[in-house]
Amino acid sequence: MAVQELRRVFPSARRKVTNHAGVENGVDLELTGIFRVQVKNHKRYVPMNAIEEIADTTGIPLLVSKADRKQWLAVLPLDDLLKILKLVPGVDQDDPSLLQNV
Prior knowledge:
The chain is of the alpha+beta class.
């Protein structure tokens, strides 16, 4: 489960309690610091194909992708993201001011 993986950096992370209408604002997990996390599970997700093409043991595979007239997105393996996040001071705190210099 994604929440169990994220607990490596955010020990208190948990699935958001939902009502009959579903999850509020598309956020599936809470207590994940400054991150708003939505979890998707697909049988064969297209970005996974691109990540597999560039994966090897020499670095972190990173896919940068963009749909027409949309913002750029970055996709990387969760294990690699968690390793990077452990190096960032305060990332586990729910403090929006951490994003001011980003």
